[in-house]
Design goal:
With 205 residues, this protein is of the alpha+beta class. 41% of the residues lie in helices and 20% in strands.
């Protein structure tokens, strides 16, 4: 199989592992992929995971890749807050939540970071769809805030919360406070609930 044939067969999947290819194409020589990557036809996302060069220019392809190359995971924290327009800063890495160990991958697509939580906190995410139909999982805005304050307990005063520069209009018009309270009831962590209440006071909610 030459690269053109491989490209035509696998491009739509977005990213793939060597094991997926070998399971689909019996006898496939993985050295083909290594050679194509060295020639610049493919981008190595992490060990044994690759994508095609064209996806470097595809908007938000990295959001899709994040959930594929490390599973289970969903996008959250600053990446999700930026997605919903809650924070003004551009986010340079894709931040995800996982129940597996904490890790990070840096490649030609970007920087992918994964923060670990207990399995009972692994909820509060919804599917998002990219043009072309590819889907990925992203925290709701409410869960992204909870994940942030759970994983970064240094945010503990009203001044700390205001330094996040959360969008005031979103906080007052779109944030679902009932949903936050339902999440907090599930998590049942007094320290986290206390920090969320401080957040509410800081933004007059």
């Amino acid at each position: 199989m030459n690269f053109t044939e491989f490209h035509n067969s696998w491009f739509e999947i977005g990213c793939f592992s060597i094991y997926q290819v070998r399971a689909t194409i019996p006898g496939f020589d993985k050295n083909n992929i290594i050679r194509w990557a060295k020639k610049g036809y493919l981008i190595r996302l992490r060990q044994d995971w690759y994508t095609f060069l064209e996806y470097r220019q595809t908007p938000n392809a990295s959001l899709y890749f994040a959930g594929k190359i490390y599973s289970p995971s969903y996008i959250s924290l600053h990446t999700a807050l930026n997605f919903y327009g809650l924070i003004p800063e551009a986010v340079t890495s894709i931040n995800s939540i996982t129940t597996s160990r904490r890790t990070r991958y840096i490649n030609d697509i970007g920087c992918f970071t994964y923060q670990s939580v207990k399995s009972e906190l692994f909820f509060g995410y919804v599917p998002k769809t990219l043009p072309g139909g590819k889907t990925y999982m992203m925290a709701t805005a409410e869960k992204a805030l909870i994940d942030l304050l759970y994983l970064y307990p240094e945010y503990k005063t009203q001044e700390d919360m205001l330094e996040l520069r959360l969008d005031y209009d979103y906080m007052h018009k779109e944030l679902n406070l009932d949903l936050i309270h339902s999440y907090l009831n599930i998590i049942n962590c007094k320290a986290l609930t206390r920090r969320i209440n401080i957040l509410f006071k800081a933004y007059n909610l």
